[in-house]
Design goal:
- GO terms for molecular function: oxidoreductase activity.
- This protein is mainly alpha-helical.
- The longest helix has 31 residues.
- The chain is elongated, with a radius of gyration of 28 Å.
- It has two domains: 104 residues, no CATH class; 66 residues, no CATH class.
- It contains eight helices and four strands; from the N terminus they run αβαβααααααββ.
Length: 223
Amino acid sequence: TATTTTTTRGRMFMFWNLQKAVGAPVLTALVAGAAAERAESESDASLVSGAMEVLRRISSAAKAKKAKAAESNSNGGDAGPDADSNWSSKEVSEPIAHVVSRWGADPRARGSYSYVAVGASAEDYDELGRPEGRVLFAGEHACKEHPDTVGGAMLAGWRAARHALHLMTRAPGEPFDEVFDLLTLEELAGPGSDDDSGSDDDDDGSDDEDEDGGEKKKKKKKK
């Protein structure tokens, strides 16, 4: 029914394979929407069972697809690039361990990552990250370039740290908002093209020979 679809369609709707990241056969199941709210009150056993049910349906569908592709191939057809899927040749065994996160009940999360709701825009992320006096804000919700990600949270944290440094070292009377506008996430992608990291303490404006012994160039003395 429509009601059942609405309340269950976000249940185990996606799996992340973390084997390359952690070096072990680990899957993360995602739950969203009304299904996520219902999952908060479910037992671990119920949620693990639900995840295994979905995985076995995927495996069963892959096996059926492989069988159909093999039949087509025997009749002179093209088996297709996905016919020999890893899913089609392996049984889905019970997990040896599991961890269930209930973000809605976590007092430091109260839900999950941010998203752009109807009527909202990417500029709202800028407002959520804008400082209030000496109070700085960071997190994935303050990074419109990379929201919903750990990377976005890290970038926003680095930016806040840069803001804190400028807050402590800025010139007298310099508005802090101007510092916020100047320090964009693009700066954190790498060193600026006009960044001068060399030392000019002993620069007296004299002629210096370049490294290959060629033409001499005049150094500009910094003021």
